[in-house]
Amino acid sequence: MSLASGHEIVNLEGEELAKQEKDWKGYTEGLVRLTPGRWLFPATFRDYADKYYKFKPRTSDVVLLTYPKCGTTWLQEIVWTMRNNPNLDNPMAAAPVNARVAFLEMDILLKTKNFNIGPDHPLMQGFKKMCPGKDPKDGVFLQMTQCSPEPRTFKSHLPLSLLPPDLTDTAKVVYMVRNPKDAVVSFFHHSRIFKNHDFSGTFEDFVQYFLDDDFVYGPYWLHLKEAWHRKDNPNFHFMFYEDLKSNNMEELKKLDTFLGTKLSQEQLENVAHYTSFSEMKARDAVLGTGADIFFNLDIVNKDGGFFRQGMVGDWKGKYTPELDAKMDKWIKTNLGDLGLEFKYGV
Ligand code: PPS
For residue 156, what is the domain's CATH number? Predict the structure, then answer.
C-alpha cells in the first residue's frame, strides 16, 4: 500500500515481528515498516499516516519537532510560555502541558489494547471541551491539534518526510536535537516506564536496536538529516538540547527573535525560571491526573518518572567500554561530513 507521502507501508511479519514482540510488549497491534527510510511505527500509524501528511498548517502555527527524548516537553513549555504566558499570569498554564500543546500523532501511540481511556479520563474531558461535537474515533489528538485555539503551538516526533510538504513554507518550525548517547539513555527509561512501549530487554539490547535503526520512530540519523538540510529555511529554527541547557538565556533570545514574541528581559527571565528542570519536575505536568494509566508505576517508583535527570552527560558510566566504542563508531560513520557537532558533557 502506498501512502500520500509516497512511502510504501507493510506490516512487520515473521522473524522481524517475533524479535520485536519479544522485547516490546506494548505494540499489541503489531508494527509497520515504511520504505524508503525504514521508518518503524505501531501498526496504528497506517490509519493516520495520510491525515498527518495532509494536515493543513497555518501561518500562525508554531510546530515543535524532535526525535523522541530530545527535549520536546521542555521546548513545548518554553514556546507556549513565550507565546501565551510571559508574565506568568495565564490561568491556562495550570493545565498539563500536553493539553495546551497538542501532540499531533499521539493517537498512534495510545490506540492499543493497553489504553482504554474512558470518557471520564481528563484527556477525554479535555478533548470534549476543545473539540465539541467531534468523534474521538477520528483521532483524539489529531483533532485536538486541529481545534487548538489560535495561535496554535503543537508538537510531533514524526520526521519531516511524513509531515505536510508545505509545513516549513507555511508555519514556523523549531527542531531540537540531543546528543544520541544521552537520548538513548533517556529513551531506554521512557520505554520501560511507558506501558505503550513496555520494553523488557536490557540496556545493551536497547542500544543495539538503536544502532540497527530498528525501533519505533527510527532511524535517528535520517530524522536528524531531514531537519538539518532545512536549517537555512527562514521558517526553520534548528537548536541543540545541550546549548539550551548550557546557554539558556542566549537560546531563549534566539527563539524570541525567531518567534517574533518580542519579550522583555524580565519576561525572558520568567520563561527561564518557569521552564527550568526543577520547576517542571515539581509541577510534573506532562499528562496530569490519570497519568498512572500510562505508566508502569513499579519502575517509576524504583527508577524515577518522566522528569528523570534533565542533564547533559548522564550517559557516562551507563555504557560498557565496548558499547561506548560501538556507539562512537556509529556516530562517526553517520555524522560523515554533515558539519554538525554534538556536545557530550564534561
Ligand atoms: S518525549 O517523551 O519523547 O516527548 O520526551 P522529551 O520531552 O522529548 O524528552 C524528555 C527528556 O527531556 C528532559 N527534560 C528537561 N531537561 C532539561 N530541562 C527541562 N526543563 C526538561 N524537561 C524535560 C527529561 O527529563 C528527559 O530527559 P532525561 O535525560 O530522561 O531526564
Answer: 3.40.50.300
pTM for this structure?
A: 0.96
CA 6 to centroid of ligand 1, rounded, Å: 32
> Do 263 and 86 form a contact (C-beta atoms < 8 A)?
yes
Domain enclosing residue 239, as ranges: 8-338
Query: Between the CA of residue 139 and those of 49, 146, 321, what are the distances in Å?
Result: 12, 10, 45
> Mean pLDDT, to the nearest integer, of 299-308?
89
Ligand 1: nearest atom to the Cα of 275: 20
Kindly give the number of the ligand 1 atom that is closest to the alpha carbon of 190.
2
Residue 185 C-alpha to ligand 1 middle, in angstroms?
11
Residues 6+ apart with CB under 8 A from 17: 11, 30, 31
Q: Is residue 165 one of the residues assigned to a domain?
A: yes
| Residue 113: per-residue pLDDT | 52
In this structure, is residue 160 part of a structural domain? yes
Atom of ligand 1 nearest to the CA of 189: 30
Whether ligand 1 lies within 6 angstroms of the CB of 305 is answered as no
Split into its structural domains, the chain has a count of: 1
Q: Give tens-digit pLDDT for 126-140.
A: 888 889 999 988 999
User: From the CA of 74, how far away is ligand 1's center (Å)?
Assistant: 6
Q: Which atom of ligand 1 lies at the shortest distance from residue 77's CA?
A: 20
Task: Tell me the C-alpha distance between 213 and 323, whole Å.
Answer: 16
* Contact 121 CB / ligand 1 (< 6 Å): no
**Phi, psi for residue 66 in degrees, rounded to 5:** -150, 160
Q: Is residue 344 part of a domain?
A: no
Q: Residues near 274 by Cβ (< 8 Å), separated by ≥ 6?
A: 77, 81, 85, 88
Q: Please state the separation of Cα 319 from the chain's center in Å.
A: 24
| Closest residue to atom 16 of ligand 1, CA basis | 310
